[in-house]
Design brief:
Length: 375
């Protein structure tokens, strides 16, 4: 055992004094970028509070839900939890391929990319699609986009709040077919759609041959703490050699993952019930009203806003300004947290993202402060 004098903060020894094992560090950990967006926001918020200890900070930043989980859904999880204490109600591992209510669904896993810290601000191997307001946040000409193995696409989009049109998704599916790509389509905010925008990539003919869809109850049902999502991998989707993608997906999931908590699944089933759907819509309506109030306020003070209709996010443009500069000014002068757009990629510079996930009264107070700042 090392002498206590060799330890530094919290009893952790310095690098030079630590006993070393023979196990090599995973080299992928070294590829992770320092200064990840949301920890950086939290750091700046804490620094602001140190300077201004009496500040009443309102967060319109991280997209975490604030409305409680509907009672019918929480009750379903509570009842299932209590049933686990009985012989009749106890359940251990579920079926290997999931309960019948969750056929062909699971949780998606991911990999890290190699970050290259240079002027173009790209991860190695990633091609950014230029999605500007002028083109309704969709590439003007997909033929100019380099062919890639995988296309990640989120609609309604985080951070822009834009829901892709049917015509846009038809073009995306055709692009994937032409280049032999697989689309990974994130539909986590689909329940916020109130017009005829597609809620699923599978509304587009031929998409099952080129697309995987992922989603969750995190934002629609307030499951950011419960954690329950799903992945749809169509049987029609195959590799270049004709082998089924679904077979590999099932193999990976069954090997690396024992399934979502059965308690969370009980909550998920309740979400899909008629009563659950009605309760979820009531919660979504609260966030959509928050978004409307925020958009009206921001527009009234002359700011250019996007999104906020089919999504809980508002994308605000500050032409010619740096996103972090706007973030700092808003925090220092109003005690409000937003998210700098540059943190979402090169196309986000000059924008901030404003989240409608907050209590009604706090959103209205934030609007009052923003009006005072910009008028």
């Amino acid at each position: 055992m090392m002498a206590s004098s060799s330890f530094q903060l919290n009893g952790i020894p310095s690098v030079a004094l630590r006993r070393r094992t023979k196990v090599s560090r995973n080299p992928n950990m070294e590829k992770l970028r320092n200064g990840y967006l949301f920890p950086e926001i939290a750091k700046r918020q804490n620094e602001h509070l140190e300077k201004n200890p009496d500040a009443k900070v309102i967060s319109l930043g991280v997209g975490d839900t604030t409305e409680p989980i509907p009672n019918s859904i929480a009750s379903a999880m509570a009842e299932y939890s209590l049933a686990l204490s009985t012989v009749e109600g106890y359940r251990g591992y579920g079926a290997e391929q999931g309960n019948k209510a969750y056929v062909d669904s699971s949780i998606i896993t991911g990999q890290t990319g190699y970050y290259i810290d240079n002027t173009v601000n790209k991860y190695g191997g990633i091609e950014y699609m230029k999605c500007s307001p002028e083109n309704l946040f969709f590439p003007k000409d997909l033929s100019t986009v380099a062919a890639t193995d995988v296309i990640f696409f989120c609609s309604p989009n985080n951070p822009t709040g834009h829901a892709a049109s049917r015509e846009q998704l038809e073009k995306l599916v055709e692009h994937a077919k032409r280049n032999g790509s697989i689309i990974v389509y994130d539909s986590s905010y689909a329940t916020f759609i109130s017009d005829d925008s597609p809620r699923s990539i599978y509304e587009i003919p031929g998409s099952k041959e080129v697309a995987i869809e992922i989603s969750s109850f995190s934002k629609s049902a307030g499951f950011t703490g419960v954690r329950l999502g799903w992945t749809v991998v169509p049987e029609e989707l195959s590799y270049s050699n004709g082998f089924s993608v679904l077979e590999d997906f099932d193999r990976i999931m069954c090997t690396c993952f024992n399934g979502a908590s059965s308690i969370a699944q009980a909550g998920g089933l309740s979400c899909l019930s008629k009563e659950g759907q009605k309760a979820i819509q009531q919660v979504i309506d609260v966030y959509k009203e928050n978004a409307r109030v925020l958009m009206d306020t921001l527009s009234s003070i002359g700011l250019r806003t996007y999104g906020g209709i089919n999504a809980p996010y508002i994308w605000v443009h500050f032409p010619g300004e740096k996103s972090w500069d706007v973030f700092n000014e808003i925090l220092e002068k109003t005690d409000i947290i937003v998210v700098p757009g540059c943190g979402f990629g090169p196309g986000g510079e000059g924008f901030i993202r404003v989240s409608a996930f907050n209590r009604k009264e706090r959103v209205r107070e934030a609007c009052r402060r923003l009006k005072n700042l910009f008028t």
